Structures are given as C-alpha cells and as structure tokens.
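PT: before anyone asks, these are the final sequences, not the draft ones from last week. 525 residues across everything. Please model them as a single complex and drop the result in this thread when it's through.
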Amino acid sequence: MNEHDPATTNLPGDGITVDLHVVRHSLGGRVLFEALDMSVAGGAVTCLLGPSGVGKSTLLRLLAGLAPPEPGDRFVCSDGGPLTGRVAYMDQRDLLLPWLDVLGNVTLGRRLRGEPRAIDRARRLIGQVGLAGREHDPPSALSGGMRQRAALARTLMEDRPIVLMDEPFSMLDALNRYRLQAMAAELLGGRTVLLVTHDPSEALRLGHRIHVMTGEPARLDQALSPPGPTPREPTDQSLVPFQRELMARLGMRTGGGS
Amino acid sequence: MNWQSYLRWPIVLAGLLAVWQLIVTATGVPHYILPAPHRVAATLVERWPLIVDHAGVTIAEIVLGLVFGTLLGVVGALTVAAFRPARRWLLPILVASQAVPVFALAPILVLWIGYGMASKVVMAMLIIFFPVTAAFLDGLRRTESGWIDLAQTMTAGHGSAWRQTAILLFRIRVPAALPALASGIRVAAAVAPIGAVVGEWVGSSAGLGFLMLQANGRMQIDLMFAALLVLAVFGVLLWFTLDALLRRLLPWQTDSFSLDAETDNAQ
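LR: through. Structure below.
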C-alpha cells in the first residue's frame, strides 16, 4: 500500500523504502495486527501516532528484529538488501551503559562487533549533539537531556540507513524536547526513519509522513504529508489544519473526542 | 566520608568494651567464665607470638576459601546463566548443597582431605560459593531488557547466533551483574570465617579455632577470648577492605549492603 504520489512528494532524499506486511501478530491473547501493510518512505521521517497499547512499539520491535516474525511476515527493502543489520534503534530511555563513559557508549556498537572504534567520528558526533568536553564523563554525571543527546549520538554513530525510534523524546522536558527534535531532524536527514510518538505536535514537527494507527487489530490510515522542510516550527500557521485533522483521527476512532 | 563516620567505629568499640567491663564488675562473674577486658588485653600481649602463628593459618584458610569459593560461584552462575539445561539440572544441586549443614559435612571433609588446611579451605568454599552464585545469577537474570535490545540491534547480522549470545553475555549481562556479584562477595566475606573455624574445631593442628579449643580445654578462657578478638578484628578488616575495593572497582553502583549507600546519603 504505497500511497505517495511522486508529483506532490515532499520527501527530501531517496533512502531505502521499507515495505512491510504483517500476517498476524498477537500479544497476550489480543490480536494486534492482521494483514497489516505499511510503507516506510525512503530517506524520510515517517511518524506513527496512535493510542497507547495499539501496537506502535510492537511494530517497531518487529522491524528491529526484537520480536520474532510470524511465517509470511515480509519486510522488503527497496534496494533488495536485507533489513537485518541495517537498523539502528533508539528507545525513550537513553539506555546508556553506566560502566562506560560517553565515548564508550557512543562507540558501543563498534566495540560489540569488534570493529575499529572510529574515535574521531565519535568525537565529532558528540560535538554535534553539544556534548563536547563530556566524552569521558560517566552517564550518571549527565542530565536527562544530555543523556538522551548521547543516545542520539550513539544512534547516529551506527550509521545505519534505517533508524527506528520509539518515543525518543517523551521523557524530556519541553525545552529539551524542542532542542533534540531540531537536532534529530538535522542529523537524521537522508535516512529512513520510523518514529513512534504519542504527541501529534512532535509528529507535525518532524514527520514527512504521518500515520495514525487505531483499532484492534490495528489499521493504518492514509498518511498525512505536511508541507515544508523539517523541523517545522510549532508556531507555523499552515500546520493548524493538520493538527486538527490528526486530533480528529486520534479522537474519533478511540471514542474520546477533544 | 566526614569526621562522624571516622569516629563512629572507635565510639562503638569503646561502648562495647564499657558494657563488657560493666557486666564483669556488676555480676562479679569469675574470670574463668568471663574475663575482664584488661585480662584479655594482657593475654593478647603476652601470648602474641602464639596467637599470630595460629591467626596466620586461619587467615590463609579464609582468604583462599574466599578466592576459590568466589571463583566457583562465578563459574557456577555463568554456567547456569549461559546454558538453559544447566539451570534445570544444576539449580536443584546448588540448593541441596545448602540444605546439608556444613557442620555435618565437616567431619567427612576432614576424613577425606585430612587435618591440614585443605579441608578448611574447602569448608569455607562450600559456605561461600552459594551466596556468590545466588547473587551473581540474580544479577545476570535481571539485566535491563533495553540494554539487551540495543545490543541485539547493534550485533544483528554480524557473526553467528552463538557469537551474538556470547557478546550479550560477556559485554552486557556480566558487567551489568557485577554490582550484584559484589554484594554476593560482601556476604561471602562476612561468612567465610565460619567455614574455616568450624573446620578447625572438627579436626586440625593449627589455627585460631584449634587454639580456642585447646584454651577452652585448659580453662584458659582469656586466651580463648584473645583468639576470638583477633578473629573478629580480622573479619571486620576483611569486610571493609573488600567493600572499599569493590566500590573502587565498580564506581557506578553501590548496593544497599555496602556502607557507602549510607554515607552517600549523609553527604
């Protein structure tokens, strides 16, 4: 179900598009997905909104290879390559290892794989997320915002074409969230990003494509494609109709209404 | 650490000595039942060379027991954590080994391994390895699941599944479980002297336990108390040294069994 029209596309780059088809997935006796199709647009940020418990994180975990796929599930990359090993994952928790310093955490993937640590690149990324000079600090010496920025640097250090983010900024205060969103939009440019969020304004700030997932088993609506480059400013008046539309999609289908 | 924490121990010690003296004075208990602190101190000075000789043996037994018991505990926990079938087969054996009182095993160990140090080291090991295994295994099984997820996405598609499991175990789960292992070692350090001394009581020709038994037989109760005092002081020193060492090695986490948890709050 590839709904974008090439004529009106607002996508910035041409990364790897991932088409996925989930036959059936249940969790604790509930059927989360049944014959679910989704296309994650290449080189763009796709946001996935929806009420909690609908299966957003489960879908992300399936893509990340953290939940076992069922027979028949398909994850097809547009370049014909595999999905496994080409995915970076960022959680809402920073997941910094307390026994490693910032530099050790940022280079964790390379250390685990036994690759050269690429210290220069790591230092550059640490500088880009505003942590220059903190390379040898333990995570416990950092504030929540700094820790999540270190986690962003670690995600970027992986240099994977596909990045999966599970509510990556939800634990931060408003100001830190705003800063990190701008940082992420800039530094993730050109990669295929699937970002799960519960915050419509975050989706409007970062998303080139915005899906709302509702129901049981979960269904995806037609994606919204807000215009303009990201990160969009929250004060942008042209986003108001999109905001209204997202609220309506989230509200109407959950029976809440706001 | 502030001045209060440095002063706390001398104050506690002085208080204990005062209570001891008070009991002796108040009850008029004969010195061959409960000797006064000054008598014990005099014996300690007088018989110091003898006590040091025997203390050396006991300390060696405790330290060796601690080292080998910890190693055994670490290997046991890693085996159970790494291989699922091992959990089913080894855990009942581990638990059963603790159901048998070590006091009951002591005569058998002395019979098998002899009167020398080896049987005491094995006794100490038997007491030590279980708290170490239990604590470390608990730590290994309680790794923050997010860390595992992260490491899995980082290593997916690189090397075999077996290699990935090994990386997860040794690079994530083991370091994450080190604070738990440290608390197991702290418990082990506190109970290690029991194994050595019980072993000496059952059958030996040297050690503080042997000395206490001999002194008791000859009604030299002050010598018995002097030996007991040396054992207690060594036990406390051992615990504090290990605690300081473990805190230095694992600065990222203190656990509730460490004294540091308390002093941190006081700062």
